[in-house]
Amino acid sequence: MDPQPCIDLAPFRRLYPFASRYAQVNGLRMHYVDEGRGEPVVMVHGNPTWSFYFRSLIRGLSRGYRAIAPDHIGCGLSAKPGPGEYGFRLQNRVDDLDCLLRQLGLDRHLTLVLHDWGGMIGMALAVRHPERIARLVLLNTAAFLKPAGKPLPLPLRLVRRLPLLAVPAVLGLNLFARGAAWTASATRLAPAVRRGLLAPYNRWRHRLATLRFVQDIPLAPQDRSYALVAQTDRRLERLSAVPLLICWGEQDFVFDRDYLAEWRRRFPHAEVHRFPDAGHYVLEDVPGRILEVLTAFLERHPIAD
Which residue stretches of the chain are H helix? Predict the structure, then answer.
């Protein structure tokens, strides 16, 4: 196992100036950022990003809130276990997040900010413990079974169905993370930002999580994580009274307008902000606008003890 990946953060300190913290989570070393004081706002990333993706929110929210952003095992600055040392399944991710929050003493008044597959992870935890959740913020994500008739985007299908191609492409050439850094944003990312997003995935073995995340997407009942996704899908109504903010980049070719429509159907009370000029990496495209919307949302929905 690679317990402390060799990643030089010096070139990114201006963009990511936060202190690194670590916790032992289910036997592995999990990295997280914990900045500011006040009500906890927990940001859960997807694939193939890491806590670097939330840097604008961490910086802005930490002035009045406790901003927490973990790196999933195998991602970011967390441990990079081998295939026989970690499960790399959705259940593992939910259990890891639950374990970290318990270690930090965060068992109530939680605001979750969820992006990409972090939405599935965070919402699976939220429906497990709805009493802990005070607010929810969704950024181009899903936490339900794929809408009927909705095809999986071509890059994800290739990784799922062509393992002989996927292994050298994802692990060897890092094409999944590299491709996202070039296509997931509606604007051209600055070179330093692209390098920051890619920094943790600088070796073959450091890219295993990016491959396993895609392979774990459940498409049929026989897939290992299907039961947990289906259960979360059924239990989303447990969160119907929780204030919900949705910030959506409309140029996302993965979580597109059909996914947004499904969220709105399930949570008609949600406050929705659509960004026509933003893509899947919505926080890279319109970070200031989202921080402004999010801060106003938090203020409009204060937490009562």
Answer: 55-61, 90-103, 117-128, 154-161, 163-166, 175-183, 191-198, 208-215, 226-235, 257-266, 282-285, 287-300
Contact 79, 32 (CB under 8 A): no
User: Beta-carbon neighbour count of residue 221 at 10 Å?
Assistant: 8
Question: Alpha-carbon distance 161 to 7, whole Å?
Answer: 31
Q: Is the pLDDT of residue 209 over 80?
A: yes
Burial, 19: exposed, middle or buried (Cβ in 10 Å; 0-12, 13-18, 19+)? exposed
Q: Which residues are registered as beta bridge partners of 137?
A: 113, 245
What contacts 66, CB < 8 A, 6 or more positions away? 34, 35, 36, 37, 38, 39, 40, 41
Q: pLDDT at position 252, please?
A: 96
Instruction: Give the mean pLDDT of 102-106.
Output: 97
Please tell me the predicted confidence (pLDDT) of residue 61. 98
Domains observed in the chain: 10-300 (3.40.50.1820)
- Over pLDDT 70: what percentage of the chain? 98
The model carries a pTM of: 0.96
Q: What is the pLDDT of residues 164-186, one digit of tens each?
A: 788 899 999 999 999 999 999 99
Cα dist from 224 to 221, 232, 249, 256, 270, whole Å = 8, 14, 30, 25, 31
Centroid of chain to Cα 221? 24
Sheet holding 21-25, edge to edge: 21-25, 28-35, 66-70, 40-44, 110-116, 133-141, 244-249, 271-275
Contacts of 37 (CB under 8 A, 6+ apart): 65, 66
Which one is predicted more confidently, 6 or 234? 234
Structure tokens at 197: 């997003």
Among 303, 275, 272, 299, which Cα is nearest to 288's? Answer: 275
Of 84, 79, 94, 72, the closest CA to residue 225 belongs to 94
**pLDDT for res 109:** 97
